[in-house]
Amino acid sequence: MAGIGFALRRLTSRDDLLGIVQGYTHSAVVSSGPWLFTILAVGSINLFGIYLTTVAELITFRVILIYNFAFSLAFSGPVLLVATRYLADMIFRKEVEEAPGMLLAAMVLLLGSQAMIVVPFYLFVVDLPPDLAAAGIVNYFLVAAIWLVNVFLTALKDYRSVTLAFLVGMITAGGASLWLAGVIGALGITIGFNIGLGIIFFGLIARVFAEYPYRIMRPWRFMRYFRKYWDLALAGLIYNLAIWVDKWVMWCAPEREITAAGFVTYPAYDGAMFLAYLTIVPAMAIFIVNIETRFFEHYQRFYRDIEHHANYHRIDSNHRNIIQALLMASRNVVILQFCICVTVILVAGRLFDVLSIPPLQLGIFRFGVLGSLFHVLLMFVGIVLAYFDLRRVMLLVQVVFLLTNGLFTWATMEMGFAWYGYGYFMASLVTFVLGYGLCAWYVGRLPFLTFVQNNTSVR
User: Fold this and answer.
1) What is the pLDDT of residue 159?
2) DSSP assignment of 214-283, as one string?
3) Beta bridge partners of 257
4) Mean pLDDT of the 45-60 span
5) How open is the CA angle 1-75-208, to the nearest 5 degrees?
6) Is ATP-binding one of the keywords (predicted)?
7) At a CB cut-off of 8 Å and minimum separation 6, what does 399 contact?
8) Which of 145, 229, 245, 456 has the fewest beta carbons under 10 Å from its own?
9) Residue 42 pLDDT exceeds 80
10) How remote is the C-alpha of 85 from its chain's centroid?
11) In the predicted model, what is the mean pLDDT of the chain?
12) Residue 7's pLDDT band (cuts 50, 70, 90)
């Protein structure tokens, strides 16, 4: 699934600054497109929308978007990871004829299962006008659909069309939302935002079908992977729950707010954490362009030489190269993310003044930035575990992340406002230390895993 990374690496290897800027910009969009799109579009809506509609209308839209992003990502995890594994296996076998059918079947499965959650929620749990509830449901489906199409993006080679889809969608969402905000308030903002999401979704899915121009065949064949890779599906659910559990816990804080429609939220915590997550975008971009591609080359050589019956010296040399590549990658990411983390923490006060962000969020934001430092490292550990098919280990790490993030956040919430955000930071740190230790132990024993533990012929 590192396909687009090689195309972007060639772009950054050009002997000019523009190639480097273009390469990492495209990589940032591929790795964090939905997140960047949402932050920039919502930021522009909040900045200019205050002159066009009421604060209450803006809050209603923002809460709808937070709920839709949280629950669509959390509950779509199993389908996303199983679809990723199925697509990766097809690409490995060079038999991608079933890709379009799998995408459509996964879309039906995802949206059908999500409908049983989102429709009753908007119709019976919260108190919204019918038209706004319908717009919220459509927004949920569009967000969930983009999560799924995102699975295919790293396998594409046309990175320009991906960036263009997000750029046009973001501009359209911001413009349409502001235009409709003064006419029909929160409903107009949501409809305008849905138009932008629709452009992104149809632009991306058109690119996928252009990349895989095959007729629909055996669309439901991937369903057997849910039984074969149940632990992978469960890991997808647990990990996405772990990402959001601290926000849900903080919605029980004494400072939480309940909107007129019945949504429970804590804007100070949610807003600070969302901004903190932006600090991981550079690391994600570098991971796709440089780290994953270099690691993948050594990874592929290790298993290819084994298939060609290489001698022990060659296998051992390839094993050492994998370890060296991972160590170099770890060093580069740690240095980059640490520098970003320290810089952002030091300038946070001034940054909040410029952006007119309430200083109440400053402490939470700084803890969030520290937590994001270890969270992004934990993400890379999970990717490495997935590469070596260590699904049970990955599941264990995600369970620990879920439990620690929930428990630590609850404990620090009980300790008072000064400790808000500390639970997420500690959970990310503890889980990363555990995940890194397990990853290092298993990768260090890679030949044994390959020839003995994962070899069904010797069991």
Assistant:
1) 63
2) -----GGGGGHHHHHTHHHHHHHHHHHHHHHHHHHHHTTSTT-EE-TTS-EE-HHHHHHHHHHHGGGHHH
3) 265
4) 77
5) 35
6) no
7) 238
8) 456
9) no
10) 16
11) 84
12) low
Domains of the chain: which residue ranges?
Answer: 3-228, 276-447
pLDDT at 154: 67
pLDDT, tens only, 90-99? 887 878 888 8
DSSP state, residue 457 = G
- Residue 267's nearest CA partner among 12, 7, 42 is 42
Between helix 422-444 and helix 230-250 the angle, nearest 10°, is: 160
The total of other beta-carbon atoms located within 10 Å of residue 285's CB is 21
Spatial distance between the Cα atoms of 179 and 177, rounded to a whole number of angstroms:
5
Q: How many CB atoms lie within 10 A of CB 458?
A: 8
- In angstroms, the CA 328 to CA 291 distance is 9
State the Cα–Cα distance between residues 331 and 319, nearest whole angstrom.
Answer: 19
CA gap 211, 197 in Å, rounded: 21
The CA distance from 148 to 441, in Å, is: 32
d(C-alpha 122, C-alpha 235), whole Å? 28
**Model pLDDT for residues 123-179, shown as the tens digit of each residue:** 999 999 999 999 999 999 999 999 888 888 766 666 677 778 888 888 898 888 888
Residue 430 or 57, more confident: 430
Task: Specify whether the CB–CB gap between 133 and 122 falls below 8 A.
Answer: yes
- Work out the angle between the directed axes of helices 159-211 and 17-49 (0-180°, nearest 10): 90
pLDDT band at 459 (very low <50, low <70, confident <90, very high): low
Query: By the 8 A CB rule, do 413 and 269 touch?
Result: no
Residues 6+ apart with CB under 8 A from 446: 302, 319, 322, 388
- Both tokens of 356, joined, read 């007119």
- DSSP code for 2: -
DSSP state of 458: G
Q: Which residue has the tokens 């440089």?
A: 290
- Asked whether the beta carbons of 373 and 413 are under 8 A apart, the reply is no
CA distance 213 to 28: 27
Give the CA dihedral 5, 8, 9, 15, nearest 10 degrees.
180
Token representation of residue 40: 């920039």
Q: How far apart are CA 200 and CA 222, in angstroms?
A: 25
> Beta strands of 338-455 (E only): which ranges?
none
Long-range contacts of range 129-135, CB-CB < 8 Å, 24 or more positions apart?
129/187, 131/187, 132/60, 132/64, 132/186, 132/187, 132/190, 135/187, 135/190, 135/191, 135/194
Instruction: Say how far apart CA 165 and CA 156 lie, in whole Å.
Output: 14
The structure's pTM equals 0.87
